[in-house]
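Predict the 3D structure for this chain.
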Amino acid sequence: MNGSDWPEAPIAEYTNPNKLSAIINPAPANAFVFIDERCDSINDGFFVVEMDFTNELAILGNIPANYHNGSSAVSFADGHAEIHHWLDPRTEPPLNPYQLQDGTWAPNSPDVAWIQQHCSALINQ
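Done. Predicted structure below.
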């Protein structure tokens, strides 16, 4: 939460809370704070979520970890945590420790939609 702006992720158009009271959409129980990132996707201190690319244009900005039987540990702003099971096989590409995995096209992925819905929302929604 409250990561810096990236050219491909215009934060100015989306909620980007910097304190607990600013977490409104999504609500704290639905806004993830931490998510496991897969080792071959880690390249910085952020988990990139491509909010502008949805449905048939959906992109996995970073690959969530799938070390827990195809699932990731996710913590939320209200303090609870859960294990979220990924549904789309594109969310679990073959592990490649020698090649950075990011920016993966995943048209109509239910996993990309879930990540986006639990990350941020347009300010005017």
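DSSP finds one helix and five strands in the chain.
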